[in-house]
């Protein structure tokens, strides 16, 4: 169906090019770190740099041999204590010891060898960044074990394997211990992380940036009602308390945001929710009077460093016990369980994550609005880029990413980027999580595919969008692969499925068109997206990981739809929109079950000249034309009278086929 311009989006005079006063004020009050338009140290592959790790490994092995450690193997995960996907610089221990800075991976160091485990998104990047000291373990390929399997099946028997208990999930640690017992080996928790000792004074300090309040007009719900909903979940388990350790969950629960981690509007904190009280563990210097007034008498403030000792005191004072346990999420670290005692905890999927994943009506409307504004920046950028390439101007990948960030920064409610832009051309586009090094990156040309995956953080939502372009004449192989990816994207966008269906089940919808040509991709089809929070949010997702089969897709959840294809060493293709799960009407409701589908909110053209139209069905062609009609109707009014070049580009790129 054709979409009409809704009155909901009619107030464009306040959106572009003017900035909302509140957003500007908040932006000026928080760290420049969060506002940085780009970063060459985080969230993706950074050029082709290789670091010599010989001395670092030598010092680590010397510590491993000392009596106070006495381990033959030491495991260095990617995560911090809060299992942040993208840790602060101070917590990038795996990156420091290995030289590999991709966002996913685990290092295993023995007294003689060193192994880096990562998945298919990072194979090429890891091959470029690891030095001769390391063996790359390509997880997911046949006969390649996970790091856990490697420890329990491929190392000698009867050894002590060290790990920092704050950096491993409690459930995972227990499973690993069981598998190691069969070989008379032991998982040893260390009170001090030896990598920190090797890092020494060069290790960065953790940031302690100001925390700010996210107003209810954006959050859609007061934090006091969120606390009551958590207590309702506690009552079902007769629990005395719930421990909250993930940073985005703490931020969401109290309607607070921060800037301690690049691109993620969170701050270092823990929380405990009890039956009639709540405690927030955070550095008090990060809280101003506005935040303290916001929290009021409902929330006690204690130092961040007191968290584990406070947990121990709950046990000592008999405030928690076996029949009145503490609920902890399934991503809680082992140190928390050790502090409370295994008998006093119940580990389950986080009740905070489950509530946070389902966006309320205010949040959903915020997603719609911010994606339209984001579409304005995308139209301006791609029009700008095409115009300059046609004029013969020489631009590299990093310059492109910087210009896109500049266009986003001029939008209403803009607070920063949601991740480092993946601005990649030709072979670099085949590196799934590549991002350009300003000192060593490729020039964007008209003769190669250009893939741009980027996003923004706004007070009313978070965006994540990928578009693939060819500004010259694409090859037949490129067009066919692009069309298959597009067909997979359309199949997911138009999918209808019964309530209770998981992302694990629907993942194949997006892959089927690629499978017809013997193609596939080594990443998930979709991840959850936070509301002015982490761009990657759980527990929902769409992919082949069995974990996605444990969480059903529910109305109000936000996920990405991003199938792709990558010809290693040549080019890469991805098309990504953010979609909202919604109820749909069907002629029948077999068994009384409701049916669900998706509403796309990303508003950016898809290049039709990269499409082999002969492969499209009538319905797929209609979808493409309908989508472009919607994009034009919603984005064009914001460009009228302000950027005629972008408006004309949008008109041309949204023309029906």
Summarize the structure.
The chain has 657 residues and is an alpha+beta fold. The protein is 34% helix and 19% strand.
Task: Give an overview in words.
- The structure is a single chain.
- The protein is an alpha+beta fold.
- The chain contains 21 helices and 32 strands.
- Strands 5-4-3-2-6-7 form a six-stranded mixed sheet. It has a six-stranded mixed sheet with strand order 13-12-11-9-14-15. It has a four-stranded antiparallel sheet with strand order 25-32-31-28.
- Strand 3 and strand 4 form a beta hairpin.
- Helix 16 (361-390) crosses helix 21.
- It is globular and about 70 Å long.
- The protein starts with 20 loop residues before the first helix and ends with a helix.
- Mean pLDDT is 92; it is low at 1-22 and 31-47.
Helix content bin = 25-40%
Q: What would you call the shape?
A: globular
Distance between the termini: 16 Å
User: Taking strands numbered 1, 2, ... along the chain, how are they ordered across the largest sheet?
Assistant: 5-4-3-2-6-7
Q: Largest sheet, if any?
A: 6 strands, mixed
